[in-house]
Design brief:
The chain is α+β, with helices and mostly antiparallel strands. The protein has 17 helices and five strands. Strand 2 (about 365-370) and strand 3 (about 375-385) form a beta hairpin. Helix 6 crosses helix 9 (about 210-220), helix 9 (about 210-220) crosses helix 13 and helix 14 (about 295-310) packs across helix 15 (about 320-330). The longest helix is centred in the N-terminal third of the chain and has 20 residues, at about 115-135.
């Protein structure tokens, strides 16, 4: 598997001198609406959640987990309590401006049963495969089918807030298995996960659907230029040659040239690619900073960094989502829009839906729902004992079972190894 995501995510070395926080402008460009209103979680609650995160991380280290340096308390407090001055958006929730709720409703609705997530997801993956194959052969692509399918998902999410939980669980269950033999598996995995993260964080930011949809397309296809890189380079496990590194570094310009040559006018996608390497503190290659970087590029660059840290690689252990967030806060905090970073922390939770965990009883299960107010106490489907034997499935709400606690996280590959590839384990 290729190392391209790691290469794309390299950051310039920065001075250790603390940068003075500048007051953020009250509005973006005239063509860009401000998304920062009606935040679901207050700064105080978020800080409490993050303090729990640090306490949990510092006390539950195990040989199976990657230990990342702890964040200084003052640094964390600065991140969580410094609120830039912003202009409130004036969107009214209607058909075209509806805002997707990011609350976690435990009850399923009739709309959810009418929408078959596995079939929808398989269709989206097929559309993505077609796009990447066409780009690889320099053929024109049509983004409308992908946009229409995302619009269907958004329509159901507006009425069914926990639809996103079901989608995330479906992705965590089957993604690695279903893309293993597909064309451009690495690009496909990144695209579908970027879709999920864009929707989750964009919803947390209360972004209207009509703006979140093209932003999601941009997040999914911002690495479209990589489809034109030879498979032997993208899937290479060994160190890349200078020529191969140069090819990968040129992927951005190749993607932009492709869009231009095929008259694909997608403002958000072009902006995400053009400004994807820029950083909020001005440390990017062209020195753009803060609101000089388009909103969509500020978001997708953060999400791409997060995805790279949790992305499966055959040559290194990937981070758990909580450790990836911790790493970003500890090492790259100033490189990203602070409000977007807060939204990522809030929306991803400590134990995202689909995470495999082991309780203090030794039993193993998968997170199926989370409580935003109790990030350490999700709802878990338990169906395996500590030795990997399948047991009768039962659902445990840790917010009400105070005698139970999460002992450690597990990757899916860890669970499969424990069960020696047990096929009926979900």
């Amino acid at each position: 598997m290729s190392k391209y995501i790691d290469l794309l995510r390299e950051h310039q070395t920065k001075s250790d001198t603390t940068m003075e926080q500048e007051k953020i402008q009250t509005s973006d460009s005239s063509t860009e609406h401000n998304p920062y209103r009606n935040q679901a979680t207050s700064d105080a609650n978020l800080l409490d959640n993050m303090e729990l995160l640090l306490e949990e991380l510092n006390t539950s280290e195990s040989n199976n987990e990657i230990v990342v340096e702890s964040v200084e308390e003052t640094q964390l407090h600065e991140l969580m309590t410094t609120e830039p001055t912003v202009e409130l958006a004036t969107h009214e929730p209607n058909t075209s401006h509806a805002i997707i709720s990011n609350s976690h409703n435990m009850a399923a609705t009739e709309d959810e049963h009418d929408f078959h997530i596995p079939s929808w997801l398989e269709h989206v993956k097929q559309l993505l495969k077609t796009i990447f194959v066409s780009v690889a052969h320099h053929k024109s692509i049509d983004l409308q089918p992908l946009e229409k399918n995302l619009a269907v998902l958004f329509d159901h999410m507006v009425a069914s807030p926990n639809m996103l939980d079901h989608l995330e669980l479906e992705l965590k269950k089957h993604l690695k298995d279903t893309i293993a033999t597909s064309h451009d598996p690495d690009l496909l995995q990144k695209s579908v996960m970027m879709m999920l993260y864009s929707i989750k964080v964009g919803s947390q930011l209360k972004r209207p659907v009509k703006e979140l949809l093209p932003c999601t397309i941009a997040a999914m296809l911002q690495h479209i230029g990589m489809a034109m890189i030879a498979d032997s380079t993208r899937e290479k496990v060994e160190s890349l040659s200078d020529h191969e590194v140069k090819q990968i570094n040129n992927a951005k310009s190749m993607g932009l040239d492709y869009l231009s040559n095929h008259q694909i006018q997608h403002k958000q996608l072009i902006a995400a690619i053009s400004y994807g390497d820029e950083r909020y503190d001005g440390s990017g290659p062209q020195g753009f900073s803060r609101r000089d970087i388009p909103w969509v590029a500020r978001l997708t660059s953060l999400l791409s960094t997060f995805e790279a840290l949790v992305h499966f690689r055959p040559y290194r252990t990937r981070l758990f989502p909580r450790d990836a967030i911790r790493h970003i806060v500890n090492h790259h905090k100033k490189e990203f829009d602070p409000i977007m970073l807060k939204a990522l922390i809030e929306s991803m939770s400590l134990y995202p839906v689909g995470t495999y965990i082991q309780l203090n009883t030794g039993e193993i299960g998968q997170v199926v729902s989370i409580h935003s107010r109790f990030p350490l106490r999700p709802v878990v489907d338990i169906n395996m004992d500590k030795d990997g034997h399948v047991i009768n499935k039962r659902q445990v709400d840790l917010s009400t079972q105070t005698n139970l606690m999460i002992q450690k996280c597990l990757h899916k590959e860890d669970v499969l190894e424990l069960t020696e590839g047990l096929k009926d384990y979900a």
